[in-house]
């Protein structure tokens, strides 16, 4: 790697990526221009770092080509010791000037009152993001958020609250409806309503004309050939016009920082306008406009002042796209979840349940012995059942109280719903194999479709009419059927079922109840059960060798046969479990989506919406349990 590329990496504070970039084969800045974004992001660079590195590399290539051309075309040096003053000054300046320009500085942002963070947030998904044709009849400034857009605004509010903590905040937002609704969702979800908000019309989106005309597609083709940055739509604007608005706004913003008291300044705007504003803020060349991609819906760009620097010589980019893709945001969300009252109560209940089972099973013999008398075993069982019942009751009580409230999670995707259904089938199917086979012939007898021969013995006729065959598993041995999957199938089945519920959870309490609690508790209890049974001799060495505690492990490593396992499955029970899982998939309560009962305190929760039920001409106030409200309307009473 040559010195010029090392110098670029040092100027961008990317020296830590030098070994990884070297492994990609980079030896000079020119090599950067030949790599795709995906190649650079694989080594750990985020999107903004990739764009800055590409911009600096292209700048170096241009300067290098210009310098080579100057060397080839300039007149030879005069063989004299005397130099003319102008010629000497220009030559000294050219020699002293480094080929690599200085890194871009923020837009004149200096001063001791500059906020710690300057945060740019794009609005959530709007109606035009889903159906562009709507702009032919609805003005761009009157577009509302979709159901997904409101969820994105809620998630952005939670991420913002975890980012700023207890610090003070000031908001500036675009007057467009979708930006105002995004701000409302952020304020409600993050409990940030107490901080001041200011509207600024200069940060509105690029104007594409009053309404989209039928020739809009032809305009976009013309824009591609003309140049995206300078192309002005009919009766609209170009990004260059947005640049002028951004310059005016940033100058006002810079002057306002003289009296700044907020630690965080948040700007809620639009894709093109925010990108132009960032380019103007960091003084990036307009020629690179084509290489930058617009922010995703509710994506963050956080410019954070480094600790110990009061004058703020430069900012660092830290974009956050989604919480589940950002480790730092994920840790912040986990910390916020454990501060949630519902999560604490549910986890406390699961902890009591686990500890109680561990103690009662570990000291089973001692408790019976110290109890004394013939009633020892019965008393032990009564105490065990009572303690387990109380612990379970505390878990369900906490879930019932807090499941609809507290920290909200994003709405599950279609893939997560499909996975949830698969885990439900797997869990219920595992549990169904522990039950006696369902006697389908009994249903025909009960419906009168079939009558057993009267010459059969009464015992046989009674068994044929029984809905379960209790003798089907008699004499099958120690390892058969579902025990080939796991030697603790009851715990594995409940665990699978819980994971299915966690995948569609919409609040942190629901996630703790269905996912975290069962998985951790049953894993510990399964390991302890093996230990107790191994110590007491209840589990034979042969069974331990032939089966596995981890589900599917014995089948995957060859200790058990897939064909034997399949042949021993009770298919009618498995089909009944799949039908039951499909039935619960359509049950909104099972999917943990709730509506607010009348008179409840309208705290923020992870609710699902039906957009068609909401009036489209009023501003959504950020409350997920209400309609979209304007400032003049009152909250409608629920039926």
UniProtKB/TrEMBL annotation:
Residues 87-107 are annotated as: Disordered. Keywords: Membrane, Transmembrane, Transmembrane helix. The keyword Transmembrane helix applies. Gene3D superfamilies: Phosphoglycerate mutase-like. Residues 91-102 have a biased composition (Basic and acidic residues). InterPro entries: His_Pase_superF_clade-1, His_PPase_superfam, PGM-Related. It holds the Pfam family His_Phos_1. Substrate binds at residues 122-129, 178. The active site is at 123 (tele-phosphohistidine intermediate), 205 (proton donor/acceptor). This is Broad-range acid phosphatase DET1.
């Amino acid at each position: 790697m040559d010195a010029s590329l090392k110098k670029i990496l040092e100027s961008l504070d990317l020296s830590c990526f030098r070994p990884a970039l070297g492994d990609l084969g980079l030896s000079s800045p020119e090599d950067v221009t030949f790599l795709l974004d995906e190649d650079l992001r694989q080594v750990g660079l985020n999107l903004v770092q990739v764009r800055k590195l590409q911009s600096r590399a292209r700048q170096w290539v241009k300067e290098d080509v210009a310098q080579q051309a100057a060397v080839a075309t300039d007149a030879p040096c005069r063989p004299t010791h005397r130099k003319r003053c102008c010629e000497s000054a220009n030559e000294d300046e050219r020699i002293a000037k480094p080929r690599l320009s200085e890194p871009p500085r923020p837009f004149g942002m200096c001063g001791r009152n500059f906020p710690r963070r300057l945060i740019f947030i794009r609005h959530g998904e709007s109606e035009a993001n889903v159906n562009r044709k709507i702009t032919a009849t609805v003005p761009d400034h009157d577009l509302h958020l979709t159901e997904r857009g409101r969820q994105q605004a809620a998630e952005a509010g939670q991420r913002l609250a975890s980012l700023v903590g207890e610090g003070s905040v000031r908001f500036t937002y675009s007057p467009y409806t979708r930006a105002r609704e995004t701000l409302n969702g952020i304020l409600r979800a993050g409990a940030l309503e107490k901080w001041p908000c200011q509207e600024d019309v200069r940060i509105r989106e690029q104007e594409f004309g009053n309404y989209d005309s039928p020739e809009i597609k032809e305009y976009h083709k013309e824009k591609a050939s003309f140049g995206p940055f300078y192309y002005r739509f009919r009766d609209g604007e170009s990004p260059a016009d947005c640049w002028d608005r951004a310059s005016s706004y940033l100058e006002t913003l810079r002057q306002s920082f003289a009296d700044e008291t907020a630690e965080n300044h948040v700007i809620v705007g639009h894709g093109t306008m925010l990108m132009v504003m960032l380019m103007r803020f960091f003084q990036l060349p307009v020629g690179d406009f084509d290489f930058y991609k617009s922010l995703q819906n509710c994506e963050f760009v956080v410019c954070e002042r480094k600790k110990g620097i009061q004058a703020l010589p430069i900012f660092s980019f830290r974009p956050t796209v989604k919480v589940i893709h950002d480790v730092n945001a994920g840790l912040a969300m986990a910390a916020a979840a454990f501060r949630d009252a519902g999560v604490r109560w549910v986890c406390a209940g699961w902890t009591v349940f686990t500890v109680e089972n561990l103690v009662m099973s570990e000291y089973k013999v001692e408790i019976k012995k110290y109890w004394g008398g013939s009633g020892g075993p019965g008393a032990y069982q009564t105490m065990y059942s009572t303690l387990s019942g109380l612990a379970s009751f505390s878990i369900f009580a906490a879930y019932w109280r807090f499941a609809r409230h507290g920290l909200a999670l994003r709405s599950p995707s279609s893939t997560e719903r499909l996975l949830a259904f698969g885990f439900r089938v797997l869990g219920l199917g595992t549990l169904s194999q522990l039950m006696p086979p369902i006697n389908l012939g009994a249903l025909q007898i009960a419906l009168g479709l079939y009558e057993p021969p009267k010459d059969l013995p009464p015992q046989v006729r009674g068994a044929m009419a029984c809905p379960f065959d209790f003798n089907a598993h008699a004499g099958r041995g120690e390892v058969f059927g579902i025990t080939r999957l796991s030697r603790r199938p009851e715990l594995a089945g409940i665990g699978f079922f819980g994971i299915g519920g966690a995948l569609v959870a919409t609040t942190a309490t629901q996630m703790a109840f269905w996912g975290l609690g069962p998985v951790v508790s049953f894993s510990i209890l399964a390991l302890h059960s093996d230990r107790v049974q191994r110590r007491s001799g209840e589990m034979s060495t042969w069974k331990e060798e032939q089966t596995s505690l981890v589900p599917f492990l014995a089948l995957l490593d060859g200790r058990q046969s897939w064909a034997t396992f399949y042949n021993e499955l009770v298919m009618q029970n498995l089909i009944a479990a799949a039908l039951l899982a499909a039935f619960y998939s359509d049950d909104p309560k099972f999917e943990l989506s709730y509506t607010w009962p009348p008179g409840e305190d309208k705290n923020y929760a992870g609710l699902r919406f039906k957009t068609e039920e909401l009036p489209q001409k009023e501003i959504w106030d950020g409350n997920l349990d209400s309609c979209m409200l304007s400032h003049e309307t009152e909250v409608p009473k629920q039926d």
